[in-house]
Prior knowledge:
Bound molecules: zinc ion
Number of strands: 11
Number of helices: 9
Radius of gyration: 18 Å
Strand content: 15-25%
Order of helices and strands: EEEEHHHHEHEHEEHEHHEE
Shape: globular
Structural class: alpha/beta
Mean pLDDT: 88
Distance between the termini: 19 Å
Largest sheet: 7 strands, mixed
Amino acid sequence: MTAGKFMGSDVGIYACPTCKVLLRREESVLRCARCSQAYPIRQGIPDFIVQELSRSADPVLRRMRFIDQIAPIYETKLWYPIILNVYGGFHSLSFAQLVSTVAQQIGSTNGRVLDIACGPGTFGRRIASPSREVFGIDISMGMLRQGAAYTAREGIANVHFARARVEALPFEDGLFDATLCCGSLHLFGETVTALREMARTMKPGAILAVFTFTAGRGGVLRYPRIREWMRREHGLHEFDLPEMEHHLTTSGFKDFQPEVSGSILTFCAHKQPA
Ligand SMILES: [Zn+2]
């Protein structure tokens, strides 16, 4: 199937996050023929999270209202570059360098790209093209609405947003040519569960491009006490390289190629062939 086939009708690509079968459009919902669950489409954005996250045991999920609120400033100088400096260190990669690193990792791969925890399409919007269709998922409706506003304003047609959790992706198996996971892997409660679900939706040999954090030489993450506090209070896991490679191998990836700048870890890997 060629890229762009779903352009303008992305609803046809979404599957039940539980049953993984394609959903049927019924007025303002997408319905699963197998389990009968209806997923509402809110202002053009399908919502696949039916449980109430604010009561979750996971500290990241409980902070959803805050994440919704910072959406308008997330990509401005007030947020993203500060987070990169504080966590990653002042001499580590800048936001522009990170975008260009991810674009290089993706290289000339075209087709469908899944953008995990996309925020307002921070990375996905910047790599979308007429031959590269981006599907962004995030748990924050505020971020997704901001992303839809940006793409409308910037005239980018090939980016689609849906509210979903990485552990239960609303897509069939083997759909994506590439997957981005930029600035979020360290926040997922179960790293291997998240990576396995990403691998499931990717084609054999498809590329995974990640930016996350490690206990490197820059930023606050070089201090063990701060790492412990971040882990306890904010659910942030920073990875060491052998641990990351092990997680990837366990989840169905190979060719781990890491680069560390300060405490920022960027890497790509490929889904193992079938
Ligand atoms: Zn279902």
